[in-house]
């Protein structure tokens, strides 16, 4: 199937009325949840995951995709108007978005973030289409050793690139890998680390883990702070109109941010958070007047928003073509697909074209809907921010519990959310990144299976990882990343106690 | 100087968890060989790695100053208790009473006094969940406590 045929085919899938309805539903609900302060895309997807059990796999994936970018958009609203970002990537948006709102230019900041998100998504879609076919062909020659080496590279990259303390980041990855070991060992049938609980034989429930680490831990921190933030400014449609100067400043950052995001989104391990930070840093560096950043520069909103949206979409490249999720959100998506009996991987493009092309086209439609719906709906989203947080969070807690319960009707899983939530809050307090824990958790079993298979094939000879050219590249890159971060740590250590 | 206690405790906790997992896995599961890895191989190696990383985090932090971050003890306790109560109660007491109790407990640390709004919120959320999850999504679960049995 050529790209054009594929897109046309995808159009016939995505425009089916029932699929279109779920796309709209996903986008609107995603925005709705994303707007709520302190709740990001991760929590939005886990909250709405249970609903998708009742619909077809295509509709489910398309709806969750809509929830994802809808929530990202909604998160931008909360971080621009109240400086209450739900996720790290929208924290970047608040750096200049919130000062703009304070200057009475909230509407322009929202407009810039909307347009930049849309353009970024389109860039991401183009990259997804171009790379996916190529990668799934290349991936058919991947062996177990290559898969294992690539996933290890992904984990190391996620914990070293852009991390302030690589040792803390890597500790989270390893803790995630350990939690991923819990359950029945596939090769030997031994129950590992279950401590006799039959509920743990299938492993720790992914939804419970995600909800505990993200939904619950974030709520706890926000109960008092969200209440103090005051009420958002009033935004009318007229205020959305940017000045000519704003319009002139936006295309450059959007194009650069979109390109940056689509590159980092497609790499396993790096994703929208790193992309938006890098885009912001880049715009400030190349600006002729960097001192405007942090004081309400429209470039500081447009660049990162384009970057995180294009990364959000190109992140589907490794997820769909290799079956390897690059970030925790993709891990949840992958989990959702597996629940629906669809195994993403190199064969998916051939075997389930309706899934792939339908998704690609629905990304375009969803983002268009987002742009069309949100211009008039902006007033509603802003007024939602006026609902006191004390009314919202108890409801969110109940919805989290029922969402987890709906996965397999287990009260044990709800109690697990409480335990994981406590862990998540302590981790957040000590500034460990729980997203990396989740990434390790999802990739762990995949790495272990492929590693054991590779070692069995090579008769226990680890040299196999260097003999195969593909895995050799990954191994060398991994060692280089570890080496450079160790070197950095050693230099910091030798320079003595820092102030 | 205020030491970086977050990293000291965080690192120490990681080291303890890692060491515990490594020893437990070594004692309980077969380690195997490189060629045929047993079920204990992965947990043991990972536990040892986490223990090492924990030390790498905790030891340098001793020489470093850090800032204190507020610990929202009340909020954490109330939210976690609400979830635990929900988990314990749902199948025994049914959806409506459990939801109401969980909401009341969760709302305890909210920065506004008074009981009336808390009770009204509990009733409203219980009604909403019934509407969405029982009527809308047709989830199977008891709604009210089963009397008698």
TrEMBL record, chain A:
Transmembrane segments: 19-49, 61-86, 106-132, 144-163, 169-191, 203-223, 259-282, 329-349, 355-379, 391-408, 414-447, 468-490
Keyword Thylakoid: no
Record flagged with keyword Zinc: no
Record protein name field: Tripartite tricarboxylate transporter permease
UniProt xrefs under InterPro entries: DUF112_TM
Short name of one Pfam family: TctA
Start and end residues of each DUF112 domain: 20-439
Source organism, top-level taxon: Bacteria
Keywords: Membrane, Transmembrane, Transmembrane helix
UniProtKB/TrEMBL annotation, chain B:
InterPro entries named in the record: DUF1468
Entry's transmembrane regions: 7-29, 41-62, 74-95, 115-133
Sequence ranges assigned to domain DUF1468 in this UniProt record: 9-142
Keywords from the UniProt entry: Membrane, Transmembrane, Transmembrane helix
Domain of life according to the entry: Bacteria
Protein name stated in the entry: Tripartite tricarboxylate transporter TctB family protein
